[in-house]
């Protein structure tokens, strides 16, 4: 069943990047940071872990790129913000695209939950109340903040408020990435962000 829902994305997805050069190593550093944060948001909202990501890789025919937990951990550990050096490695373009496909596949699988969280966020905004006081959003924000602080290097600029803003932005992004063209939206967004960062 899993393979049927995204078999086309696993075989030959359309990345729609005319006249774009391949990202360089500095841009890939930024891309792998952003991808790890997208997966962190998914983990925090849905409670999924590495097993679900590996199942997604299998369903998308990406097991040659991400065959096991160790490979997945090393790819995510390549995020420069991560604590420790043990699993850090270079991330190439095909590996980055594989993580994009997995992220969007999982977002689509959990689209109903993402939509419900966005609906709660809209209600919170209308009522001018605090997101963390809503059960679903509060659980998500707690999980995101705790996991971020556990995995990432300490940064004096990262406050609870900043992490909350980041988590809510990623939540909104997940809704776009759960669409049928989500992998293309995420990839182009990653390229655009690296262009802004490097300019």
Describe this structure in words.
- The model is unreliable at 1-11 (pLDDT under 50).
- The protein is globular, with a radius of gyration of 16 Å.
- It has helices at 2-11, 25-46, 50-59, 69-77, 93-109, 111-127, 135-151, 160-177, 182-198.
- Helices cover 69% and strands 0% of the residues.
- Helix 2 (25-46) runs parallel beside helix 5 (93-109) and helix 3 packs across helix 5.
- It has one domain (24-191).
- It has nine helices and no strands.
- The chain is mostly helical.
Fold topology:
Elements lengths: L1 H10 L13 H22 L3 H10 L9 H9 L15 H17 L1 H17 L7 H17 L8 H18 L4 H17 L1
Helix pairs in contact: 2-5, 2-7, 2-8, 2-9, 3-5, 5-9, 6-8, 7-8
């Amino acid at each position: 069943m899993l393979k049927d829902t995204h078999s086309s994305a696993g075989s030959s997805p359309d990345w729609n990047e005319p006249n774009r050069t391949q990202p360089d190593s500095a841009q890939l550093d930024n891309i792998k940071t952003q991808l790890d944060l997208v997966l962190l948001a998914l983990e925090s909202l849905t409670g999924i872990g590495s097993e679900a990501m590996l199942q997604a890789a299998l369903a998308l025919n990406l097991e040659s790129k991400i065959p096991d937990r160790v490979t997945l951990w090393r790819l995510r550990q390549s995020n420069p913000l991560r604590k420790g050096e043990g699993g850090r490695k270079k991330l190439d373009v095909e590996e980055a695209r594989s993580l994009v496909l997995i992220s969007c596949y999982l977002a689509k699988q959990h689209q109903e939950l993402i939509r419900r969280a966005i609906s709660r966020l809209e209600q919170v905004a209308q009522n001018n109340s605090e997101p963390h006081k809503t059960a679903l959003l509060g659980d998500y924000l707690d999980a995101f903040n705790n996991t971020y602080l556990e995995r990432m290097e300490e940064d004096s600029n990262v406050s609870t408020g900043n992490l909350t803003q980041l988590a809510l932005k990623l939540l909104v992004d997940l809704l776009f990435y759960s669409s049928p063209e989500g992998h293309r939206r995420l990839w182009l967004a990653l390229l655009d962000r690296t262009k802004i960062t490097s300019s």
